[in-house]
Amino acid sequence: MLNLARVGRQALNRQPARLNAIVAEVIAILQPEREGRSVEWVIADLPVVECDPVLVKQVFQNLLANALKFTRPRVGGAQAGTPAPSPRAVIEVGHKEDEGQLVFMVRDNGIGFDMKYVDKLFGVFQRLHRAEDFEGTGIGLATVQRIVQKHGGRVWADAEVGKGATFYFTLTAAKQIESKSNGATAGGQ
What we know:
Layout: H1 2-9, E1 15-18, H2 19-29, E2 39-43, E3 48-51, H3 53-70, E4 89-98, E5 101-108, H4 140-150, E6 155-160, E7 164-170, E8 175-178, E9 184-188
Parallel strand pairs: 2-4
Antiparallel strand pairs: 1-3, 2-9, 3-8, 4-5, 5-7, 6-7
Helix pairs in contact: 1-4, 2-3, 3-4
């Protein structure tokens, strides 16, 4: 909760940020979360942008931690009415340009969620899954939204139950400095 409040008060410290380096650092931080699991990381060739790298790192950390959490295999197989999860988690990070604006995305092949609840996603203490099934405080996506809005952007999601989720965000106040030319695809445990 303190982190969420701190984000609101913190001034943006814009500087050139290599997003591939930020994502790689977050993946390293999240290593304990993927112990004993088969996780395939598909990381696109991300641009260097001018933004607050500490805050953007927090955005990627929250989104990638959620992707790892919600791609964990479900004990006992699929829930009624949903397909069985893939034994291999696939988590993608990418971007595209839409009407002259960079749109970043984090996609997973996890349990997804029902889009009729999408308006609850970014609220403080709002959860779409039972606390007994998935740990968390319910402030991670609210923090993501606050950081993205601080950068003049917006965040939204698309998902389907049993088929994963994709989170998109823009950073309007961030500007692309150069295109990177060394994307990576990494697989691992």
